[in-house]
Records
---
Amino acid sequence: MFVASMTAEKPFDFGTTPGKLPKEVVPTEYSIRIIPNIDKLSFTGMEMVKVNVRAPVRQLVLNALELEIASASLDNDPLPKSAIKIDRQNELLTLALPSELAAGEHTLALSFSGKINQQGQGLFYVRYQEQGTAAKKTMLGTQFEATDARRLFPCWDEPSFRARFQLTAVVPENWLAVSNMPVEAETKIDNGKEVRFAMTPLMSSYLNVFVAGELESIETQNSGVQIRVITTKGKSEWGRYALDISAKILQYYNDYFGVPYPLPKLDQIGLPGGVGGAMENWGGITYFEGGLLFDPEKTSDDTKHDIFAVIAHEMAHMWFGDLVTMAWWNNLWLNEGFASWIGTKSTAHFNPQWEVWLRKNKPRNPTRRVGIAKEQAMESDARSTTHPIQQPVVTEAEASSAFDDITYQKGQSFIRMLENFLGEDVFRDGIRRYIAAHKYSNSTTADLWSALSETSGKPVDGIAAAWTEQPGFPIVKVRRDVDGKVSLRQERFTVNFKNPTPLEWKIPLTYFVLGEKPASLLMTNKTDNLENIPPDRTLKINVHGGGNYRVQYDPASWDLLLGSLADLDVQERVNLLSDSWALVQADRAPMSIYLGLINKLPHSTELAQWDQIINVFDFINRLLIGQPEREKFQQYARSILRPVFEELGWEPKSPEAPNVLTLRGSLIAILGDLKDQDVITASRQRFQKYLNDPKSLSPDLRRATIGVVGGYADESTWNKLRELGLKTTNIAEKQNYYDALASARDPKLVQKTLEIALTEELPSSRAVFLVAKVARESEHPDLVWQFARQNMKALLAKIDALEINSYAPSLFTFFSEPARVDELKAYAKTNLPSSSVKEVAKAVDEVAFRSQFKRRLASQIAGWIDHRTARK
Ligand SMILES: [Zn+2]
């Protein structure tokens, strides 16, 4: 059954695009001048905005937030002070006009002032220690997505109001200033210099950028584009890897999209704070520097994967997001799902050995799920708190909370499934057609489907609708009938969800009989059949796990699969592991199905397979904190993982595949958590040696080894780790030490680590994540919540707009006691704004799920282990 309200979305049309701003007045060109005052953490500004009045109006309505408007004039006539109204609640600036304004071209001039923020919202400052010196420095940056350009200058701050922007800024003379376009002129003035940037092409306001400070850069040229990596002083050489891959990726996208990169330059800017992840400002992408810079002497190889993936994602936005922008935030998935998908696709293209489609997605925020991207999204999407990829967005807070794993990862999985179904070349031709048709303009999901339908000749919108406009996803149940007939039946797959609305999908199903070529079937009804499948042959549905659905086999089919595991490649094995773990979560199968599968796996040291298992074991180990069955489980888990680690050994052999380097680190970390005494002792010994001779410990093992040492630290070890963390200015090294502090289990040390979050020791976004990291690692989420509740105001002051609604509720997701549900509800009622409602509901669902799952798992695991021991 399709949801009745599911109506096909319309192609882009400016007049009917959602939003708060009236559509009669459209800005075409902004000239903005900003003068920051670093000492006072404030700025003054002026702007001239050319507007096109499409129908006569009596007032102008645009966005402004936390700005004081000093004066306004229209076509050189000053408006009285009384004509200027600020509506704080709706973030609007209204200018009442003395008489009706005729249609045509007009010019609005405004002067205003505002503040420079501590958190990454609007114009912000970052204080940091300069590389190689003891000097404390300050720099400036901006973060505007989704709705914060209005904090720097009054503007029509909705994505469909595209305009050209020309920025001028006054900065100290020894500063480097960066914006979307190259510098057009620099003029020395009293106390500094005035930097004027070239005018941008037509773009959405949230894509503006301004970064300035004592910065340096390295650069290259590719396809006529100047590419730079910009950092604070002393760090630019660590941008070499980012610079090299940026050039490669630029060429790849120029070809894929069929339109060359449209700006004269592309800057990759590393900031020591203010940005949590990265932001795709057109021509000037900002990154938290840890996600961009790479010091081969001190950073693990694994970091390269992360840098490649984030650069590939952000650069894809230069076309998909910036050149063509979603009309409104309800189509955010189109930007993010697509950039995530092609980011992964291009990363896989250049680095096939990394197995990126199977790799764990490591969220920087420790409260987010860890796992393969597709699995992260499916876990959220199975819950009652899920939402369709395309969801209505009315308020600014709703726009901010749209940035979740459904938007990114389900979006990516669906696009991947669609590409598989339509074929790689046909899909690319559709994307080229879409980009060509909508460049320098906006679009909706419907526009993408129509481009893909035209190139493929298939009804893409009919297939897509159920995936983008309904919540959830299906499970396909497989049953062998007589005479080689296999019957398939779909239903909605849910976890911890009473009475879900039954839904159906058009499923682009793929399958193969072992030893034969893959085939596909578009499953358009609740049931369907596969014919001529020999009853004694292994059948695998969902080739390479490329489809966004679960599969449950009948016992006969499952036994055939278990008997053929050695003949299935790692992608198929990971898919079977993921699906069977999901069946356990959904209470559709007992835990023995998952543990039995592990038992039958062929001998292998493939990272992706062990990643999946380590991730599940880590979840169980944390869920069972305080349970009598935990020790038994730890013993069992060690017995599975220990032999793999022994085969790899502590010392890297050269040459060795990068995936083996990563697996060794993951095994050390999990065995440490599982209280493997040998690994704990060996980690301590290696750490002592490393203190005298840093080269003795490979960069690929440092994170895991130091983490184990931190987990079991006494006070003097804790002090040593902190001293090391304070001393180093290397980003990755610093992160290793502070992560290790966050792992300390001793309650007294937990308190000491938490206190760090209130200091300026870490960049603000890292400081607030430190608290969540302690909640996850220390095994004392209660102490963390107590601390966070007492210091919430100070913590929230450090957090950026995208995380603010979820911060307090997400700290509850480490609990599994039913009483915490009531505590969170009560806390939310008196302390949280109404914009946190969805985040509170998600956390409530998570705690409730964990509490019932804990009981079920504990008894089933104990039963399995006893049974296994008895058989031996
Ligand atoms: Zn993105």
Note: The first strand starts at residue 25 and ends at 37.
---
Amino acid sequence: MKVARFHAPGDLRVEEAPEPTAGPGELKIRVRNCSTCGTDTKIFHHGHHHIRPPRVMGHEIAGEVVGTGERVQVIAAIPCGSCEECRRGRMTVCPNQESMGYHYDGGFAEYMIVPAKVMAVDGVNRIPDGVSFAEASVAEPLACVLNGQELARVGEGDDVVVMGAGPIGCLHVRLARARGAARVFLVDVNPARLALAAAMVQPDAAIDADPVEQVLKLTGGRGADVVITAAASGTAQEQALRMAARQGRVSFFGGLPKDDPIIACDSNLVHYRELTIVGANGSSPAHNARALGLIAEEAVPVADLITHRLGLSQVLEAIDLVSKGVAIKVTIEP
Ligand SMILES: [Zn+2]
Ligand SMILES: [Zn+2]
């Protein structure tokens, strides 16, 4: 079979590999869609400390179970299910978390094995009728977005700002609307990317400069109830704190570069305005199941966000499209 295997930073090869066989407690899948995201471009360029090459990449996975033909979506982050955090229901912060495409071969392949550890935490979801494999592959990033908005308590009547107009930002806009947000504003420093995303998800305003001033103006000086930073930008995080309303919630959804994670925070802003700052680290198996439900109910439509469908042999092209920010969602169809 054909796979796309990471060998070293900048060295991702489409090559032949023996078709894998499922061991006890494992599941073999014929991958139908594996979508790409910013993390894949990061791994391609810089590698990852959890990846020991060679490793088949790809973690936004949907396919058919070999033998039964059942249509399934697979989680990316695998909690251990037994540590103190997992037992308390905090699976997104399991310290023993492993990931598909990192610790285990992922979905940029014709066939893939679902590890027993994934089965043990209910990490395989049946795809509802009417949901395509490509749409189902977007359940994983949507699950992460859902976790972020639950932690930031996005709800009825909120004015929400999403900073970063990539695929994750687009999902944040749609989910905020589904959760009853009053208005959603989308911010990006790249006007072309912002225009592309805004045409798709129709925010109440699209802001490409002076976001703090613009948001304050749009909210009559009050600020936004929730600000979500879906960009690896310390500047965006600092701006988010300054545009939050009293008792606002700020989600540092996107992480910062490892070598540059320190930001300036006016602590008195947090104190007097009673701000809440929350992080977000991936998603739990339950988030994946619920994300798939949101897609099936069309509460969060994703079909139109899939702008590019490429074969496995075009995986480098896919990563290039994602890096350039000229696509919204790029999916691989092995
Ligand atoms: Zn991803
Ligand atoms: Zn755990």
Note: The two ends are 10 Å apart (CA to CA).
